[in-house]
């Protein structure tokens, strides 16, 4: 089955992706239907049977799920190990501006928060479902986990790192964004309720008690990475400022 956009991507998993995205951002089928201007029964039909959608319906569904049609169609799915770049493949690494980085993460999704556990004094990394409210990265987490302990340890802000990345379009092409800054609990109940209403994301690990966390970006950096065919990089001049070449298997850091 080929999608209505004529780009050759199979729609077979569109319903599954739509359902996963809906759960990821904490919406019911009724809420998605209201945002997309669809009947709740039709949203259920899309998730369960994956019909062909018109351009308009696909766009409205993507908007309701705060994502893009390409994401729903699987054009941005991660590469499988079999699709990984062979050893020796060179990649073009382009530094992104702060504005470009924020635009890439504005739709929310899954990211990782890095912090230091005050009890063990060891660095920890925790996956989160996040959303952008204004320019702040917001998410919910367990009130009894390590992150909650870190944020309540000294009663103030706790410096953290947040990273989101994605392979898009074709294998060996993607981006990564790193945000660092103070993370704080949203303690005011009205503010927390407003944040949840604006970005109804679910905590990664469900529990009876939850906290609402805000990261205020202090430093934002990122890179876009794509593979170069040997015929391209063999004849390429020295990389321009802001660009660099890296061998596959090496690290595209944020330095």
Automatic annotation (TrEMBL):
SMART domains: HTH_XRE. Residues 22-72 form the HTH cro/C1-type domain. It holds the Pfam family HTH_3. This is Nitroimidazol reductase NimA-like FMN-containing flavoprotein (Pyridoxamine 5'-phosphate oxidase superfamily). GO terms for molecular function: DNA binding. Signal peptide: none annotated. It comes from the Bacteria. SUPFAM superfamilies: FMN-binding split barrel, lambda repressor-like DNA-binding domains. It comes from Nocardiopsis aegyptia.
């Amino acid at each position: 089955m080929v999608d209505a956009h004529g780009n050759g991507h199979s729609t077979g998993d569109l319903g599954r992706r739509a359902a996963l995205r809906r759960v990821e951002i904490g919406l019911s089928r009724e809420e998605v239907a209201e945002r997309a201007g669809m009947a709740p029964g039709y949203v259920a039909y899309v998730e369960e049977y994956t019909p062909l959608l018109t351009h308009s319906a696909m766009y409205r569904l993507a908007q309701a799920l705060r994502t893009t049609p390409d994401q729903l169609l699987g054009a941005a799915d991660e590469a499988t190990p079999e699709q990984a770049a062979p050893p020796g493949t060179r990649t073009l690494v382009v530094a992104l501006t702060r504005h470009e980085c924020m635009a890439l993460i504005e739709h929310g999704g899954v990211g990782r928060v890095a912090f230091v556990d005050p009890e063990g004094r060891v660095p920890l990394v925790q996956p989160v479902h996040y959303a952008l409210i204004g320019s702040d990265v917001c998410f919910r987490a367990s009130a009894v986990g390590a992150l909650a302990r870190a944020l309540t340890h000294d009663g103030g802000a706790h410096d953290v790192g947040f990273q989101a990345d994605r392979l898009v379009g074709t294998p060996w092409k993607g981006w990564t964004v790193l945000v660092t800054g103070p993370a704080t609990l949203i303690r005011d109940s009205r503010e927390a309720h407003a944040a949840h209403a604006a970005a109804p994301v679910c905590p990664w690990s469900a529990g009876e008690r939850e906290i609402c966390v805000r990261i205020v970006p202090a430093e934002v950096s990122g890179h876009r990475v794509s593979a170069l065919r040997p015929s391209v990089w063999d004849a390429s001049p020295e990389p321009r400022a802001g660009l660099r070449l890296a061998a596959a298997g090496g690290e595209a850091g944020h330095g």
